[in-house]
Amino acid sequence: MSTAGTATPPQQALEVGGYVVGLGFTNDGRVAVATGAGKLVFVTGAATAASITGEVAVHRGASLSFARDPAGDAFLSGGDDGRLVRVGADGATGELLDTKGKWIDALASSARRGLIAASAGKQVHLLKAGTVQVLGPHPSTVTDVSFSPDGSRLAATHYGGVSIHLTDRPGEKPRTLAWKGSHLAVRYSPNTKFVATATQENAIHVWRLASGADMQMQGYLTKVKSLAWSADSNWLVSSGAEIAVCWGFAGKGPEGQPPLELNTHSVGATVTQVAAHPTGPFMALGFSHGAVEIADLEKKRVLPLAERVDSPVSAIAWSPDGWRVVAGTESGVLRLVDLKPKS
Amino acid sequence: MTSSAATPIPVTVLTGYLGAGKTTLLNRILTENHGKKYAVVINEFGEVGIDNDLVVNADEEIFEMNNGCICCTVRGDLIRIIGGLMKRADKLDGMIIETTGLADPAPVAQTFFTDDDVRAKTRLDAIVTVVDAKFFLDRLNDSHEAEEQVAFADVILLNKTDLVSAEELNAVEAKIREINKYAKVFHTQKSEIELDKILDRGAFDLQRILSVEPEFLDEHHHHHEHDGEITSTSVTIDGPVNPERFRMWISGVLREKGQDILRSKGVLAVEGEDRRLVFQGVHMLMDSNWGQTWKPGDARTSKMVFIGRKLDNDALRRGFLACAQKR
N or C: which end of chain A has fewer CB within 10 A? Predict the structure, then answer.
């Protein structure tokens, strides 16, 4: 497709040598890329003339999960070798957990409380300052974890719904949010009012935490794998359709209302990954053919950012300052886009 | 659309009752010097004695799809495990999924029809069932899983043949044929078999079923009063089908009888198309793809096979024959 008439922002593509599992930014602005080759690859963050500055071997097999370390300039990678490894921006590594081969499927961290949650099978390992506590077993394998914004609670999703744990009382029985079916991702809303899950069955499910009332949003083209709340909690955006599906949570909420459906520039491709801008009403969208676009939730339009590369976008992230977008594909192509206007 | 050029990875599902010889076979796959890279997904009670990166423990989490289809159960853990294996940088030559002895093979097979990612990246190559020649007839009496595992099979290893007499072996094989006439049967001892006979065979491609003509067995087994209730039947049209009429008919059959029909397979000729239309179903789920090209001199016939309970052979025959392309 053509982007004629739209000035394309400065951008660059480069190969990182493996399925892109997760993306983060170091304090000095480099990009950290966790890959299916079991490595953490560091890339200069500048959108033009980006290059690989170093790589660290982390796992024997693939990295399966990735998160920012809750303290310091470092990242966490969970692997199919059962190891949870901390990798500093300087490349120094340290093993935090070894599950003896149990895959570490999901990771989350809370900078507020210095907590790490790592799921392996039906259990979630809750790490704080060198101590490890085990949550669960849950009813089935935990597929994703999400901390509440203040870190006081951890949502773990599995077959049949979500378990909400109190992080300072890990031995206590979790609160259960039940919905039959296989849930693939879970996200706390930034205002702590909602918990949303993406499900295998082409739908998303949302609970109001105060009342426990829940709602089901369906009609997606495929299963939903990626979910993101806008920074102001007014919008919940999801993958799984050819358009950007944005559910409005301002005011009375989405009950009985159709979602805001924004047409994209990628006809025939579905959204595979979404990421919310750290402060503004913007959502980065990655597509099944590798294109990257941005949804402006206020102006209700979508702008193209990077062209297709014929492999699905498997991870996408914003820089902490919100001026850069980085996206990676299953085939290992990394794209960096700089949105900052030239002064 | 997306054009990931990667060819789908063939997946072999390994079933068989407890003690039939699955673990022996898996250990051989993992230790033999075949130069191939296989990921092996073992069940939670699996006893594979090899510590290997590519041996993955599965907990056999079965869940119902909320799609209104009452028999539609899939293996959630397989979707997750296949997703994880696809992230690896090393290219796999194949994947073998072991199920517990008591498992119904349907949820595993149905997973390959249901999940988009699994469908895009893997291909169900064959269901291989290991049968214990000595105890199979006893198992049939005390568990219906043993019968279903044979019914679902594309390939059967009739194992431990050294532990039975020739007459006993014949009786077991005749019983297997009553349930499933269309599987390829190999006689083995200690699960010894050349791996290319069971892995990446394209058995689910089903080209073979056109050439399997087991009618000769019927002459000896024309009594249909046997106690096992699963049977198999086939119908052939001496020419192409009308694809639209076939689609209407098969959807109706599987919607109404899909609970009883365990497997349906077909290789069909379509007018004006040089490739075979290959059809496969597990219970109510179905899928069809273009298969190999007809060669000059091939008889372009269309054949359907059904394996299931309470099959109404006459109705299936009449229904399929009515799908013939009018000339």
Answer: C
